[in-house]
Specification:
single chain, about 575 residues, alpha/beta, five-stranded antiparallel β-sheet, 16 helices, 24 strands
Length: about 575
């Protein structure tokens, strides 16, 4: 059965289907929004975000950050942690090249009893003499005392925290600017401190946004803080002041081995006017993360901090604001719009295979819109609206199929017993012309009616037993019905030995030429029925069955067509 286009449905059925589509679209979209708010879709949506990040990742045309790597070779030669004297020497060498700031992504502790103090004092003096140097600390958390920075760095305000926000799936997507302790005292991240020190030379700083004081502005560019429901997040921990890491610099940031720095193999131009971070990239020291841009590969902590610094510098100097997301209300509206669009698509394309292709094209368009928006700096959802659209399309397709089957059963209950399969299919295809609400619309029409019976039927019936009589009558009815159907007639009823048939129903013949064609078809049918009866008579004689002549009456005129009977037992007839 070929699915029908919406325009071919009866008016009440079309209205009902449209209402059902609206209800399905709203229901599915509501369910998707609820599932999204509960975090059930994060496992699909956040990886989709990561894919966008990887698509957008490129090279930094003017890298402002460089990395000094402490490799396995340096650890094997100098030990771990790196001795204070060697670290101080490396920092002074880098500082002589003229960088704008230097970050040390290494935890340092006060010397233990019995260890020489001169090296420690040398490192402290190095920090005291250069305000471009910054150390890290790990802030205390419940159940975790953290790792404090040495007093010599804390006393001069050259300490930033190294804490990283890791999502429940183990991926880093967010950066931190500030954190507050239980007494509401702020701490700044290493990446922010390094960026601020580098921006000082350009007269740029951090301050409140002039329009929204709860937001901060870096170099005149607003950084909107993330909330627990930003983008595809449902109930994320949004403590502190967080922003989305774009991680576009990646491998384009230059890096150098510590050994090359110590031996003077790195030219001064490699560090001049750049922020330099020094940290461990050895596999033997656990300091690595999976990021949205890494595709599952591990990224060392020093590289992650370097990318955060690079992003903050681009925010302040280039106005490259962090990626932002729509409000919850806008995202819900977007999901509802695509859910309803999926229902409309299922109404417009009734064929399942064509609908599948159309749905794939719609999801492709949704993905393209989301990708273009992401490239423009706005993160909009596409997994949730895609689910809403596909689910609504599938449900509406199933619903219209169920309704078509119910409509077809109604048509077949009325006509299927009395017409051929071809005629029944034609009636089904054109049912909108005479059906409404699952039953024929009463209508005045001009038809040619045919009434037939067998003369002498009663005497013949009395001479046969029940089985032989039914076999005799059914053979006659079957042969005559075939002739009627062949000429386009519709059998209305069987009454004993009689047949009532109509020509020109249930699809009314409106023009005189069509009415005349119906009448001529009925006459031709009657003549052929006479010839068929002669063939039957010969067969009856050979089998010893009675032979009876047939009487046929034809009438062309106005009649009323419609359904008679109860809701459970109904038939189509003409009066």
């Amino acid at each position: 059965m070929e699915p029908m286009a919406l325009r071919d449905w009866p008016r009440d059925g079309r209205t009902s289907l449209l209402a059902a589509t609206l209800g399905i679209g709203l229901g599915v979209s509501s369910a998707v929004c609820v599932a999204r708010s509960l975090g059930w879709l994060e496992g699909l949506e956040l990886p989709a975000y990561d894919r966008f990040v990887r698509w957008q990742a490129g090279t930094d045309a003017e890298p402002r950050v460089a990395v000094v790597r402490i490799r396995e070779e340096e650890i094997a030669e100098y030990g771990h942690p790196l001795p204070d004297a060697l670290l101080a020497r490396a920092l002074r060498t880098i500082a002589e090249a003229g960088p704008s700031a230097i970050g040390v992504d290494l935890y340092r502790e006060a010397p233990r009893p019995g260890e020489p103090l001169d090296d420690y004092r040398d490192l402290a003096a190095t920090f005291a003499n250069d305000d471009r140097l910054f150390l890290i600390e790990k802030l205390p958390q419940p159940g975790d005392p953290g790792v404090p920075a040495p007093d010599f760095a804390r006393e001069v305000g050259q300490v930033g925290f190294s804490d990283v926000v890791i999502d429940p799936d183990g991926v880093v997507r967010r950066g931190l600017l500030m954190l507050w302790d239980e007494e509401d005292r702020p701490s700044l991240s290493l990446s922010l401190l390094l960026a601020l020190r580098a921006l000082r030379e350009h007269g740029l700083t951090l301050g409140p946004d002039p329009e929204r004081e709860e937001f901060v502005s870096l170099g005149g560019t607003t950084i909107e803080p993330l909330t627990g429901t930003t983008g595809d997040y449902a109930n994320a921990d949004a403590g502190g002041y967080q922003f989305l890491l774009d991680l576009t610099a990646g491998a384009s940031l230059p890096s150098h081995a510590l050994e090359d720095v110590l031996t003077g193999a790195v030219p001064a131009e490699a560090f001049r006017d750049r922020v330099v971070l020094i940290g461990t990239t050895s596999n033997s020291v656990k300091d690595d993360f999976v990021t949205a841009a890494s595709g599952g590969a591990l990224v060392h902590g020093v590289a992650l901090h370097a990318e955060a610094v690079d992003q903050l510098l681009r925010i302040a100097r280039d106005g490259d604001a962090p990626r932002r997301a729509w409000s919850n209300a806008a995202e819900w509206t977007w999901i509802f719009a695509w859910g309803l669009a999926g229902g409309v698509l299922a109404l417009a394309i009734p064929h399942p295979l064509a609908l599948a292709l159309g749905a794939l094209c719609a999801v492709g368009a949704l993905l393209a819109l989301a990708a273009a928006s992401f490239a423009g700096g706005v993160w909009i959802p596409w997994v949730s609206p895609g689910i809403a659209s596909l689910a609504t399309s599938g449900w509406v397709l199933a619903e219209r199929g169920r309704r078509e089957r119910a409509e077809r059963r109604a048509v077949m209950d009325l006509f299927g017993r009395y017409v051929s399969r071809t005629v029944a299919d034609e009636l089904w295809r054109r049912r909108a012309e005479f059906m409404d609400g699952g039953r024929p619309v009463p209508q005045r029409l001009v038809i040619t009616a045919m009434l037939t019976d067998l003369k002498g039927y009663t005497q013949a019936a009395e001479s046969l037993d029940a089985v032989a009589l039914m076999d005799w009558v059914n053979g006659y009815m079957d042969a005559m019905t075939r002739v009627i159907e062949a000429h386009g007639g519709v059998v209305d009823d069987y009454t004993g030995d009689g047949i009532k048939a109509n020509f020109g129903v249930p699809i009314a013949s409106a023009r005189p030429q069509q009415i005349a064609q119906d009448a001529r078809a009925a006459v031709r049918c009657a003549l052929e029925m006479g010839e068929t009866l002669e063939d039957l008579a010969r067969t009856w004689k050979e089998r010893g069955l009675p032979v009876a002549p047939m009487r046929i009456g034809l009438f062309t005129g106005e009649a009323v067509g419609g359904s008679l009977g109860s809701a459970d037992r109904m038939k189509y007839t003409t009066v």
